[in-house]
Amino acid sequence: MVKINSVLHGSPSERHGVRKGDILVKINGHGIKDVLDYMYYAADTDITLEIERDGVLMTFDIVKDEYDDLGLEFETFLMDNKQSCSNKCVFCFIDQMPPGMRETLYFKDDDARLSFLQGNYVTLTNMKQEDIDRIIEMKLNINVSVHTTNPELRVKMMHNRFAGEKLKFIWQLAESGIKLNCQIVCCPGLNDGDELRRSLTDLGGLMPNITSMAVVPVGVTKFREGLYPLTTFTKETAAQTIDIIEEFQQIFLEKFGTRTVFPSDEFYLIAESELPPKEAYEDFSQYENGVGMLRSLIDEFEQALEMAEWEGGERHVSIATGYSPYGVISMLAKMAEEKFPKLKCDVYRIRNDFFGETITVTGLITAQDLIAQLKGKELGDNLLLSQAMVRRDSDVFLDDLTISDVETALNVVIRTTPSDGFELLDAIMGITY
Asked: What is the pTM of this model?
């Protein structure tokens, strides 16, 4: 039972007399507790709504096209509260953040509904058998944070006594035909080496319903007092991990026709190894996990540069980036300068003083580090920043300063760009649409 917050004008529900404030009880005889129930049962063409209004149960029969929206809106997107994480993972980034940041940054979600709807990864540790049965009934493909298939090690890494036994849900889902994308946050001395081999072997046994796997290196900030003593990957250990993953890629490729498992770009940067060609990433299924982003950026930029024509006069821009991708971004800037002699593109690598120097990715750079390290520098016509630095659909950095704050402090106009080579070149050249 969920209270209806509003009814869209002209929708099937409004036309049949459903009102704001009504209580949605059932759709086609099925009780409704959240957005998954609502979306699944409302997809039919013939709908019977059971509505409670002022204590009286009412029935509305609606005929509509398949998947047409009924037009009901609720107080929250999920129609109830987000499910929070019940783990205390040794590698959890949220536990490594300083105090005093905005409250929403400290919330750990572990909600299977968000996995299906928004691509979030879930551990399955706060789920019950009936939750798994519902996923199977609704045929919902989800993303799972596995980390290890060793039950005892999973308990240790997640600080959750149920983490090991909940691995059975992965097997139940895969064997029921549910497609799973998986991720492993790899921690030196814990789930790397032979433990990584074990996890990839076990998950490989569930293919083809394990559709992709990403292995990403643990991020370690300076705020780890009282936490598990994690270490970061070195050039040598990163290279060893790449070797293991590429070994399994070859096994899976020969057996199933797909590599399935991919190391994130950061492993290649740490190992100082050349990025694989585009073909090695197949359909870039783990792009949002940082797998293939740099290869895609390079290839797109080269294509854009080949087609580009310079029509303007002299132009000077600057780019601020993290330590990890600095070499790649510098290479792209140099390519643009070589093709267009009137263009000057300076690239600045920003040390992460806020979280600590071991955090080298661009997306975790804060406004205060940008200001401190770029103050007084000649930044040119524009300062180009990755959109990953600011909150989605906003201009707010992790430290709650805004793009406007940085522009004022550095006396420069900022332009943000997505991880797209064509748009990066447009921004460098000053092209707008």
From this structure: 0.89
